[in-house]
Amino acid sequence: MASQVLQISSVANEKIKHLIQLSRKSALREKEQLFVVEGYREVNRAYQCGFAAHQLFYCPEFLNESIHKIQADQVYEVSAKVYEKIAYRQKSEGVVATLKMRSNRLEDISFSGSNPLILVIESPEKPGNIGALLRTASAVDIDAVIVTDARTNIYNANCIRASLGGFFALPIALCSNEEAISFLKSNHYQVLTALIDDDSTEYHLKDLTKPTAIVLGTEAEGLSRTWQQESFQPIQLPMPGKVVDSLNLSVSGGILMYEALRQRSGS
Q1: In CATH, which of 3.40.50.970, 3.40.1280.10, 3.50.50.60, 3.40.50.150 is domain 106-264?
Q2: 5 neighbors 67 (Cβ within 8 angstroms)
Q3: What is d(CA 146, CA 176) in angstroms, rounded to the nearest whole number?
Q4: Hey, what's the torsion of the CAs at 137, 138, 142, 148, to 10 degrees?
Q5: 254, 137 in Cβ contact below 8 A?
Q6: Tell me, what DSSP letter sits at residue 101?
Q7: Contact between 212 and 192 (Cβ < 8 Å)
Q8: What is the mean pLDDT of each run of 10 residues along the chain (267 residues)?
Q9: Spatial separation of the C-alpha atoms in residues 14 and 184, rounded to whole Å
Q10: What is the pTM of this model?
């Protein structure tokens, strides 16, 4: 923690007003390169994954854990009234923090292994779906996630919350479709595109043990034509049912990622 802890008891405090605006406005987050995380578990996981805390707000009345091991530039003890104003969830362990963003540039992605597995998500709209995919990607130990032409801000609180810490554990790149495709081709990835098409191969028939990128589109529109290239390989999940003709994005991604894990573990 910081050497000095300041107290805030008024919801009209400028620090509190700024915190609320930061949680609501993506433009302000981008400008200041800060984002808001709520809950002791989430803040602690972010800290363990190397994220730097700028401000830490805590309420002793709701706090069940020691926050002394979490280092922050500024630390504020807030009243219950103030905490109820800044917390989206009233039972979130008494901690809200602003964290410094990491680089989300594609060129800053680095891989520790020689056989990377990447998840690419095109134009995602729902923060909850992104978060759920990050949660599974972290569980499977995906090397990186690339989000192309995003229609929502990945620093949205719902995205971070739904990831259950996966957001902090993974390298996440933001770029255009064209930039992602250029990156994957220049690095000789096998690119598997999730498409419901007559030419698509069932996912389990593909060799996922080589450097691979799994590409997912939106639930409503699927992948755009940009990803429908001859050098890419379309795959699909069988759906013999008579009513349902599509799966939830996070469900589809989870099945594909765990198939890669199964093959790579030799199961």
Answers
A1: 3.40.1280.10
A2: no
A3: 10
A4: 50
A5: no
A6: P
A7: yes
A8: 84 98 96 96 94 95 86 95 88 89 93 88 94 97 96 94 96 97 96 88 96 92 92 91 76 97 91
A9: 45
A10: 0.92
